[in-house]
Amino acid sequence: MIKYSDEEGFIKAKGIKFREGQDKNIVLPKVAVGVFSRHLFNDVIEKFSCKEVGYISTANMEKNVYILRYKNDEITFFMAGVSGPWISADIEELSAQGVKKFVIFGNCGVLDANIEDCSIIIPTMAFRDEGTSYHYLSDTDTIDLNPKYIDAFIEVLNNYNFAYTKGYTWTTDAFYRETKEKINCFKQKGAVCVEMEGAVIASVCKRNKLDYFTFYYAGDNLDSTEWDERSLSGLSNLDKKKQVMLLALDLALKINN
After folding, report:
1. Are 133 and 84 in contact (CB under 8 A)?
2. Contact, 16 vs 38, CB < 8 A?
3. pTM of the entire predicted model
4. Where are the beta strands (DSSP E) in the chain?
5. CA-to-CA separations, 185 to 22, 82, 179, 182, in angstroms, rounded
6. Could you tell me if residue 9 is inside a domain?
7. CATH number reported for the structural domain that contains residue 96 in this entry
8. CA–CA separation, 82 vs 10, rounded Å?
9. How many CA atoms lie within 13 A of 190 on its CB side?
10. Vertex 157: Cα angle to 147 and 224 (nearest 5)
């Protein structure tokens, strides 16, 4: 059983870490874009003007943080940590360094076979089937997602002629335990997809009074007799996924005010 406490955490986020010669007093651009795919992350680093300004340190790896110049504007850019505990730490450390708004996106599994591969899903509520969010907000079965920026994002989608679905998501932290029983249960409750971070992003940002938008591109299909991987592999349908990356960057420009 998770015991919720409304007190401030005993350990405080101190911000990103720095290498020799980097500015330890830097304040990051207030809008950050985080992507879960390392392939899309590396593609942006190669294509756009990106300056490495520090890194997020974990016990077993370091993740570089960049200031990305996109269409004459500056955005904080990072590779988002997969799972609730990891993405919560990313948000905590980056907000301690000046980030006020987050756009975070990645792949999800679909619970409706009619949702096309690599099409966009805008989650409006998450079922909390994980642990991290319960340390940030009190015990409820669901949490509303994306209270801001949906209309702005739909404008971006229309500009790129991207198909999209709005609906509920199921956030879990045990993807090997996505059983048929659970899939049917959450589908009957209205969930159209499953992922690992949505409820956590919402809870961390709500508690810390940060703005955010999170969305998904459709990957593997769980609405079938057998698991259908579709384009779950990072390199599958990569050209389409690179277009999804532009959706996040364009939204970041829209909300950078």
Report:
1. yes
2. no
3. 0.96
4. 31-35, 49-57, 62-70, 73-79, 101-110, 120-129, 142-144, 164-172, 191-195, 211-221
5. 50, 24, 10, 5
6. no
7. 3.40.50.1580
8. 24
9. 9
10. 85
Structural domain including 106 reads 31-254
Please tell me the predicted confidence (pLDDT) of residue 1.
72
Tokens of 23: 């500015």
The pLDDT value recorded for residue 238 is: 87
Q: By three-state DSSP, how is residue 57 classified?
A: strand
Joined tokens for residue 137: 């907000």
Mean pLDDT value across residues 21-38: 97
pLDDT score of 34: 98
Report yes or no on 102 lying in a domain: yes
Taking the C-alpha atoms of residue 256 and residue 31, their distance in angstroms, rounded to an integer, is 6
CB neighbourhood size of 181 (10 A)? 8
| The total number of structural domains that make up the chain | 1
Helix, strand and coil percent figures for the chain, each rounded to 5? 30, 30, 40
